[in-house]
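User: Okay, second chain of the day. Same drill as before: sequence in, structure tokens out.
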Amino acid sequence: MESVKRLYRSKTDRRIAGVCGGLAAYFNLDPTLVRLLAVLGLILAGGTFWAYIIMAIVIPNEP
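Assistant: Same drill. Structure tokens below.
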């Protein structure tokens, strides 16, 4: 049976809502890199803030 990869907000690697930690785990990246990209997105593009808020609401917590 094939294992389905799911996106969750991280319970252990969280700073604000666990979104960056969850994205890092899903894409097998360093959480610091994902957080840096998120901060750069906040500075350079205004829509990143709303995308983060929506992901924090929509993506479920890790079981």
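Residues 19-58 form one domain.

User: Thanks, on to the next one.
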